[in-house]
Specification:
Helix content of chain A: 25-40%
Strand content of chain B: under 5%
Largest interface: A-B, 37 and 35 residues
Number of strands of chain B: 0
Structural class of chain B: mainly alpha
Radius of gyration of chain A: 18 Å
Number of helices of chain B: 9
Oligomer: heterodimer
CATH topology of chain A: Rossmann fold
CATH architecture of chain A: 3-Layer(aba) Sandwich
Chain lengths: ~240, ~260
């Protein structure tokens, strides 16, 4: 369950909302920066400008780093840029979080990877040569597809898609949405939350819960609390 | 009110190494805390790559340099030997070869792996990849820091060992081929009185040097701000502070030995 309490970010207000287990939710914001901000707040990477978010009843920003990472085991993120590591080929990126978590039964990974490829067969196309390339050489669609497969392997209870369909041709949008819907239905109680700023394809015929962020004139005082890029963080805060 | 510094440049140049020392120690501590995460396959792969890039890839160059350095010493020591006799010559050979191997390897590792680690981590930070790791539920410290610190340490240890061997045997062989003194004579001078610890000592020293270099490199990579123009500055800081560290650490270990 995801709970938003009087949630507001830089230039937008979402208010109160509860996304129950099994629900497909769509949050419409105004800009790409806002969708990224909501995603970071959900991950506990930054405190909301105002109000709070609770994931499985816990406010991630108030947890210690180890507990927060443990909580994130149940959550999968698909950022718009894919969030792939540029030094690793795409297929290595797909396997990375699963390999990291599965320190013992490593023999399972090959089978799980093949199952993920089969699941995405239609979207991937017949040629999987792109998976052997570095992320800089694949298209935005393939990067998002790779991020989706990476998330799939970890079998999360909550899936967060940040601007999944933005700037893609209609056919690729449909293809990605079909995949995420099928994945959502695979496990009872799974939450899928889409953070979009482009209403386009999604808003007109959204079957699940639709939340619209309302624009506000002011930016909450602590909105940029963690965002100063010049802050020196030795203990590897991710900004 | 802003504090007045008569020599702001001097104050800054004194502060930076202190900050680096503190930051490097925190990075080292973090690597030790996450040492058990090296059993994870994804982390092991990073460790293996780091050992390869630091300790295996430059091996041919290091051996070539060690042969030449070895020959240079033997060439010089021929002259020392004429004046000082066996005991002094032995002392000089053993001390110089044992003390110099980790120092030269440390400088090589610093300029290769140290610079590479800083620019890689800085790039990852600027592209938001450290944040991506976090979103994947991967602890960046265990995935980025621990394997790099221990990988560089193992790599430098390997290089120091092979440099020592190359310097001792290769240098003597070259000198036997190129100079008048026999190989056996210099081998006897070199190996006489050496024990197991003496052979292990350059490697241990190399490992300590490698730990420090990697910690400094990671620290400077992680503290880079968002702008890409800051990366070269971070690499320069790594090389400068790393050079200080390599020389100070090697001197301290030599004094303590």
């Amino acid at each position: 369950m995801i709970e938003f309490h009087e949630f507001a970010g830089a230039g937008f207000h979402l208010g109160d909302a509860v996304i129950q287990a099994g629900v497909e939710g769509l949050i419409l914001v105004e800009t790409a920066e806002q969708s990224v901000e909501v995603m970071h707040c959900l991950a506990g990477l930054r405190a909301p400008g105002h109000g709070g978010i609770r994931l499985f009843g816990r406010d991630l920003t108030k947890l210690g780093r180890d507990d927060r990472l443990k909580a994130l085991d149940k959550v999968g993120f698909v950022p718009q840029d894919g969030g792939l590591l540029t030094a690793l080929p795409v297929w290595n990126n797909i396997l990375l979080p699963r390999q990291y978590r599965l320190s013992r039964h490593e023999d399972r990974i090959a089978g799980e990877f093949q199952a993920a490829v089969n699941f995405c067969q239609e979207a991937c196309g017949p040629d999987d040569a792109w998976m052997r390339l570095l992320p800089d050489y694949v298209s935005p669609y393939q990067r998002r597809l790779a991020a989706f497969m990476r998330m799939m392997l970890c079998k999360p209870d909550v899936c967060i898609y940040e601007n999944l369909t933005g700037n893609l041709p209609a056919r690729q949008k449909e293809s990605l949405l079909a995949l995420t819907r099928r994945f959502h239905e695979q496990q009872a109680g799974r939450i899928s939350l889409y953070l979009e700023f482009d209403p386009g394809l999604l808003a007109n015929r959204w079957p699940g819960l639709l939340l619209r962020a309302t624009p506000t004139a002011h930016t909450p005082s602590n909105a940029n609390e963690h965002a100063d890029p010049n802050r020196i963080r030795i203990s590897i805060a991710p900004f | 009110m802003e504090r007045f510094h008569p020599f702001p440049g001097l104050v800054n140049s004194l502060q930076q190494p202190l900050k680096t020392t503190g930051g490097g120690l925190i990075i080292f501590y973090s690597a030790v805390v996450y040492i058990f995460n090296l059993r994870r396959r994804a982390v092991r792969e990073v460790l293996a790559k780091q050992i390869y890039f630091t300790g295996v890839q430059p091996l041919a160059v290091v051996l070539a340099i060690s042969f030449l350095v070895g020959y240079l010493f033997v060439f010089l020591l021929e002259k020392v030997h004429l004046m000082a006799g066996d005991a002094t010559t032995r002392l000089v050979i053993q001390t110089v070869v044992m003390e110099l191997s980790p120092l030269i390897c440390g400088m090589m590792v610093l300029s290769r792996s140290g610079a590479a680690i800083t620019s890689e981590i800085a790039g990852m930070k600027q592209r938001g990849e450290i944040r991506s790791l976090y979103l994947m539920g991967i602890d960046p410290e265990s995935y980025l820091i621990a394997p790099r610190v221990f990988g560089v340490a193992i790599g430098t240890m390997l290089l120091s060992f092979f440099f020592f061997i190359g310097c001792s045997i290769g240098g003597l062989t070259l000198s036997a081929l190129l100079s008048k003194t026999s190989f056996e004579r210099f081998f006897d001078l070199m190996a006489g009185g050496m024990n197991f610890f003496d052979i292990l000592y350059p490697s241990l020293k190399g490992a300590v040097t490698g730990l420090g270099i990697a910690a400094i490199a990671c620290y400077h990579g992680l503290r880079v701000p968002a702008s890409a123009t800051e990366t070269p500055k971070a690499v320069i800081a790594t090389i400068t502070h790393g050079t200080f560290f390599v020389i100070i650490a090697n001197t301290l270990m030599m004094v303590l030995n």
